[in-house]
Design brief:
- By secondary structure, the protein is α+β, with helices and mostly antiparallel strands.
- Helices cover 37% and strands 22% of the residues.
- The protein is built from five helices and nine strands.
- It has helices spanning 15-21, 35-46, 114-131, 165-178, 183-208, and strands spanning 27-28, 53-58, 65-70, 78-84, 90-92, 97-99, 106-112, 145-150, 153-158.
- The strands form two sheets. A seven-stranded antiparallel beta sheet has the order 1-9-8-2-3-4-7, sandwiched between helices. Strands 5-6 form a two-stranded antiparallel sheet.
- A hairpin with a 4-residue loop joins strand 5 and strand 6 (97-99).
- Helix 4 runs antiparallel to helix 5.
- The radius of gyration is 17 Å and the shape is globular.
- The termini are far apart.
- 33% of the residues are buried.
Length: 209
């Protein structure tokens, strides 16, 4: 599990206060110099599929990981998939950068209720669009990078442990746990995610007011 997901326990503040305590560092699109690398990781994880929502972690060192929500047929469960590269994709050879995509990632896929998946898309999309203005392009960053795509819009930047990303990362951690649990335990995760989404929605509404 990405290390950033292990330290998300601060109490929720109104978003206006969050902005002062921890300004959003995300921007729209890929950071400069990251698109080829990030795109290669996404193709490795997704193949020909087109997730409705995805998160990809590009760490400064270690293996790349990702989450994806894949739509099901009308009214049916969606698929939740967690992926981890078998070996690091970003690799410097003797003379040049290599993107090691000739590998099979480790993946775990489980069903997720359609209503919950669609709610995740809406709340995450609304939250990120509010936190990251359309004119705010992603900027270069040397450390770990998180890239989220929600309904076709990409938001990328440092993996922040506070501010607007805090609860999204907390919910992502619960999704990762659910991807590796038995069905009986997943039901509890869905309830926890739903409650967290409710809190995030209330915070979003308060910031908009």
């Amino acid at each position: 599990m990405p290390a950033a997901l292990l330290v998300l326990s601060a109490a929720l503040m109104p978003w206006s206060a969050m902005a002062k305590e921890c300004p959003a560092q995300l921007g729209r699109g890929w950071p400069p110099g990251t698109a080829n690398y990030g795109g290669a990781v996404e193709r490795l994880f997704d193949g020909q599929a087109s997730p409705a929502l995805s998160l990809v972690w590009l760490p400064r060192s270690g293996k790349e990981t990702g989450l994806a929500l894949l739509p099901g047929s009308e009214g049916m469960a969606w698929a939740l998939r967690y992926s981890e590269a078998d070996e690091r994709v970003y690799h410097w050879g003797r003379d040049a950068l290599e993107l090691k995509t000739e590998q099979t990632p480790r993946q775990s896929t489980v069903p997720i209720p359609a209503a919950l998946a669609q709610r995740l898309m809406k709340v995450w999309g609304d939250s990120l669009r509010q936190a990251v203005p359309e004119a705010a392009a992603a900027t270069f960053h040397e450390g770990d990078v998180l890239s989220a795509v929600v309904d076709g819009v990409r938001f990328s930047g440092p993996v922040s442990e506070c501010g607007p990303l805090e609860q999204i990362l907390e919910q992502a951690g619960l999704l990762i746990e659910a991807s590796d649990e038995k069905e009986s335990k997943r039901e509890r995760r869905w309830a926890e995610i739903d409650a967290s989404l409710q809190t995030l929605q209330q915070s979003l509404a308060g910031a908009g007011g």
